[in-house]
Task: structure prediction
Amino acid sequence: MLTLALNKGRVLAEAVPILERAGLVQPGQFKDTRALVFEPAEKSGLRVVVMRGADVPVYVEHGAADLGLVGKDTLFEHPTHEYFERLDLGIAKCRIMSAGLADAEFDISRPLRVATKFVRLSERFFAAQGQEVRFIKLSGALEVAPRLGLCDLIVDIVDTGETLRANGLVPLEMIAHVSSRVIVNRTALKVKQAEVLACLSRLQDSL
Ligand code: PRP
Result:
Protein backbone atom coordinates (compact mmCIF):
# COMPACT_ATOMS: atom_id res chain seq x y z
CA MET A 1 0.00 0.00 0.00
CA LEU A 2 1.07 3.59 -0.67
CA THR A 3 0.19 6.65 1.39
CA LEU A 4 -0.53 9.98 -0.29
CA ALA A 5 -0.44 13.24 1.69
CA LEU A 6 -2.98 15.55 0.09
CA ASN A 7 -3.07 19.34 0.49
CA LYS A 8 -6.58 20.25 1.67
CA GLY A 9 -8.52 23.22 0.26
CA ARG A 10 -8.25 24.31 -3.35
CA VAL A 11 -5.61 21.73 -4.33
CA LEU A 12 -7.81 18.93 -2.95
CA ALA A 13 -10.92 20.31 -4.69
CA GLU A 14 -9.16 20.42 -8.07
CA ALA A 15 -7.32 17.11 -7.56
CA VAL A 16 -10.40 15.06 -6.65
CA PRO A 17 -11.71 14.69 -10.25
CA ILE A 18 -8.24 13.47 -11.34
CA LEU A 19 -7.97 11.01 -8.42
CA GLU A 20 -11.50 9.76 -9.16
CA ARG A 21 -10.82 9.31 -12.90
CA ALA A 22 -7.65 7.43 -12.01
CA GLY A 23 -9.73 5.10 -9.80
CA LEU A 24 -7.50 5.97 -6.85
CA VAL A 25 -10.31 7.20 -4.56
CA GLN A 26 -14.00 6.43 -4.20
CA PRO A 27 -16.30 8.96 -5.87
CA GLY A 28 -17.55 11.55 -3.38
CA GLN A 29 -15.43 10.27 -0.49
CA PHE A 30 -14.10 13.71 0.50
CA LYS A 31 -17.54 15.38 0.55
CA ASP A 32 -19.19 16.44 3.81
CA THR A 33 -16.73 14.75 6.12
CA ARG A 34 -14.21 15.81 8.72
CA ALA A 35 -12.29 12.56 8.26
CA LEU A 36 -8.59 13.04 7.50
CA VAL A 37 -7.53 9.48 6.67
CA PHE A 38 -9.15 7.55 3.82
CA GLU A 39 -8.27 3.88 3.53
CA PRO A 40 -7.69 2.55 -0.01
CA ALA A 41 -10.60 2.42 -2.40
CA GLU A 42 -11.08 -1.09 -3.84
CA LYS A 43 -7.89 -2.24 -5.62
CA SER A 44 -6.41 1.29 -5.57
CA GLY A 45 -3.74 0.43 -2.99
CA LEU A 46 -3.61 4.10 -2.05
CA ARG A 47 -4.35 5.49 1.41
CA VAL A 48 -5.03 9.25 1.33
CA VAL A 49 -4.32 11.57 4.25
CA VAL A 50 -5.61 15.14 4.07
CA MET A 51 -3.56 17.93 5.68
CA ARG A 52 -2.39 21.54 5.43
CA GLY A 53 -0.13 22.23 2.46
CA ALA A 54 2.90 23.18 4.54
CA ASP A 55 2.82 19.76 6.24
CA VAL A 56 2.75 17.71 3.01
CA PRO A 57 6.50 17.99 2.26
CA VAL A 58 7.28 17.23 5.92
CA TYR A 59 5.38 13.91 5.82
CA VAL A 60 6.95 12.97 2.48
CA GLU A 61 10.46 14.04 3.50
CA HIS A 62 10.31 11.74 6.54
CA GLY A 63 8.72 8.89 4.60
CA ALA A 64 5.53 8.94 6.72
CA ALA A 65 3.82 9.42 3.35
CA ASP A 66 5.22 7.90 0.14
CA LEU A 67 3.67 10.53 -2.10
CA GLY A 68 2.49 14.11 -1.69
CA LEU A 69 0.20 16.30 -3.71
CA VAL A 70 0.86 19.97 -3.01
CA GLY A 71 1.24 23.42 -4.57
CA LYS A 72 4.60 24.42 -6.00
CA ASP A 73 4.43 27.51 -3.76
CA THR A 74 4.86 25.23 -0.74
CA LEU A 75 7.72 23.32 -2.36
CA PHE A 76 9.69 26.53 -3.03
CA GLU A 77 9.87 26.98 0.74
CA HIS A 78 10.78 23.38 1.54
CA PRO A 79 13.77 22.25 -0.54
CA THR A 80 15.16 18.82 0.34
CA HIS A 81 16.87 15.89 -1.33
CA GLU A 82 14.53 13.46 0.43
CA TYR A 83 11.82 13.69 -2.18
CA PHE A 84 11.57 14.15 -5.93
CA GLU A 85 9.03 16.22 -7.80
CA ARG A 86 7.66 13.78 -10.38
CA LEU A 87 4.47 15.16 -11.91
CA ASP A 88 2.89 18.55 -12.63
CA LEU A 89 -0.90 18.13 -12.50
CA GLY A 90 -1.41 21.60 -13.99
CA ILE A 91 -4.23 22.36 -11.51
CA ALA A 92 -4.79 25.05 -8.85
CA LYS A 93 -2.77 27.41 -11.00
CA CYS A 94 -1.86 30.86 -9.70
CA ARG A 95 1.10 33.22 -9.54
CA ILE A 96 3.38 34.49 -6.81
CA MET A 97 3.77 38.24 -7.24
CA SER A 98 5.00 41.27 -5.39
CA ALA A 99 2.35 43.92 -4.70
CA GLY A 100 2.10 47.27 -2.99
CA LEU A 101 -0.18 50.22 -2.31
CA ALA A 102 -1.19 51.96 -5.52
CA ASP A 103 0.18 55.34 -4.40
CA ALA A 104 3.18 54.07 -2.44
CA GLU A 105 6.35 56.11 -2.06
CA PHE A 106 9.36 54.23 -0.74
CA ASP A 107 12.03 55.62 1.56
CA ILE A 108 15.10 54.72 -0.48
CA SER A 109 17.45 55.46 2.42
CA ARG A 110 16.58 52.12 4.07
CA PRO A 111 16.15 48.51 2.92
CA LEU A 112 12.84 47.59 1.35
CA ARG A 113 10.53 45.90 3.88
CA VAL A 114 8.77 42.90 2.35
CA ALA A 115 6.12 40.86 4.17
CA THR A 116 5.56 37.33 2.93
CA LYS A 117 5.22 33.69 3.80
CA PHE A 118 7.49 32.90 0.84
CA VAL A 119 10.75 34.11 2.37
CA ARG A 120 13.11 31.73 0.52
CA LEU A 121 11.65 32.38 -2.89
CA SER A 122 11.51 36.13 -2.26
CA GLU A 123 15.10 36.22 -1.00
CA ARG A 124 16.25 34.67 -4.26
CA PHE A 125 14.16 37.03 -6.34
CA PHE A 126 15.28 40.26 -4.68
CA ALA A 127 18.91 39.10 -4.38
CA ALA A 128 18.97 38.55 -8.16
CA GLN A 129 17.87 42.16 -8.52
CA GLY A 130 20.60 43.34 -6.15
CA GLN A 131 17.91 44.81 -3.92
CA GLU A 132 18.53 45.09 -0.18
CA VAL A 133 15.48 43.72 1.63
CA ARG A 134 14.34 43.12 5.19
CA PHE A 135 11.80 40.28 5.31
CA ILE A 136 8.87 40.10 7.68
CA LYS A 137 7.40 36.61 7.89
CA LEU A 138 3.59 36.49 8.01
CA SER A 139 1.30 33.51 7.65
CA GLY A 140 -1.87 34.93 6.12
CA ALA A 141 -4.00 38.00 5.30
CA LEU A 142 -0.88 39.71 4.00
CA GLU A 143 -2.91 42.26 2.08
CA VAL A 144 -3.47 44.41 5.17
CA ALA A 145 0.26 44.73 5.99
CA PRO A 146 1.20 47.64 3.69
CA ARG A 147 -1.79 49.71 4.79
CA LEU A 148 -0.85 49.30 8.45
CA GLY A 149 2.70 50.40 7.67
CA LEU A 150 4.23 47.02 8.50
CA CYS A 151 5.95 46.76 5.11
CA ASP A 152 6.51 48.44 1.75
CA LEU A 153 5.60 45.41 -0.36
CA ILE A 154 4.08 41.99 0.02
CA VAL A 155 4.89 38.82 -1.90
CA ASP A 156 1.83 36.60 -2.11
CA ILE A 157 -0.32 34.29 -4.17
CA VAL A 158 -2.40 36.05 -6.83
CA ASP A 159 -5.17 34.17 -8.60
CA THR A 160 -7.96 36.44 -9.85
CA GLY A 161 -6.33 39.56 -8.34
CA GLU A 162 -9.57 40.34 -6.47
CA THR A 163 -8.00 40.23 -2.99
CA LEU A 164 -5.33 42.75 -4.04
CA ARG A 165 -7.94 45.09 -5.61
CA ALA A 166 -10.25 44.85 -2.60
CA ASN A 167 -7.39 45.99 -0.38
CA GLY A 168 -6.11 48.86 -2.51
CA LEU A 169 -3.02 47.01 -3.71
CA VAL A 170 -1.60 46.69 -7.21
CA PRO A 171 0.37 43.74 -8.56
CA LEU A 172 3.97 44.68 -9.37
CA GLU A 173 6.36 41.92 -10.42
CA MET A 174 5.77 38.33 -11.41
CA ILE A 175 7.95 36.03 -9.27
CA ALA A 176 6.79 32.46 -10.01
CA HIS A 177 4.07 30.38 -11.61
CA VAL A 178 2.39 27.86 -9.34
CA SER A 179 0.51 24.62 -9.97
CA SER A 180 0.01 21.39 -8.03
CA ARG A 181 2.82 18.82 -8.08
CA VAL A 182 3.18 15.19 -7.07
CA ILE A 183 6.27 14.53 -4.95
CA VAL A 184 7.68 11.09 -4.12
CA ASN A 185 9.80 10.07 -1.15
CA ARG A 186 13.31 9.05 -2.24
CA THR A 187 13.24 5.68 -0.45
CA ALA A 188 9.69 4.85 -1.58
CA LEU A 189 10.79 5.39 -5.16
CA LYS A 190 13.40 2.67 -4.70
CA VAL A 191 11.64 0.23 -2.38
CA LYS A 192 8.09 0.51 -3.77
CA GLN A 193 9.12 1.46 -7.30
CA ALA A 194 6.53 -0.59 -9.20
CA GLU A 195 3.60 0.68 -7.11
CA VAL A 196 4.81 4.29 -7.22
CA LEU A 197 5.34 4.27 -10.98
CA ALA A 198 1.93 2.62 -11.53
CA CYS A 199 0.27 5.30 -9.39
CA LEU A 200 2.07 8.13 -11.23
CA SER A 201 1.09 6.72 -14.60
CA ARG A 202 -2.57 6.37 -13.54
CA LEU A 203 -2.50 10.03 -12.50
CA GLN A 204 -0.74 11.11 -15.70
CA ASP A 205 -3.29 9.20 -17.82
CA SER A 206 -6.16 10.90 -15.98
CA LEU A 207 -5.11 14.50 -16.62
C1 PRP B 1 -4.67 33.29 -1.33
C2 PRP B 1 -3.72 34.47 -1.26
C3 PRP B 1 -4.62 35.64 -1.48
C4 PRP B 1 -5.73 35.08 -2.34
C5 PRP B 1 -5.54 35.53 -3.77
O1 PRP B 1 -5.24 33.10 -0.10
O2 PRP B 1 -3.02 34.51 -0.03
O3 PRP B 1 -5.12 36.13 -0.25
O4 PRP B 1 -5.65 33.66 -2.29
O5 PRP B 1 -6.60 35.12 -4.59
P1 PRP B 1 -7.28 36.15 -5.60
O6 PRP B 1 -6.19 36.77 -6.42
O7 PRP B 1 -8.20 35.28 -6.45
O8 PRP B 1 -8.05 37.14 -4.80
P2 PRP B 1 -5.96 31.76 0.27
O9 PRP B 1 -7.42 31.92 0.10
O10 PRP B 1 -5.36 30.61 -0.48
O11 PRP B 1 -5.68 31.62 1.82
P3 PRP B 1 -4.37 31.96 2.69
O12 PRP B 1 -4.60 33.33 3.26
O13 PRP B 1 -4.37 30.88 3.71
O14 PRP B 1 -3.16 31.91 1.81
Summary: The first strand starts at residue 2 and ends at 7. The pocket of PRP is lined by residues 140-141, 156-163 (CB under 6 Å).
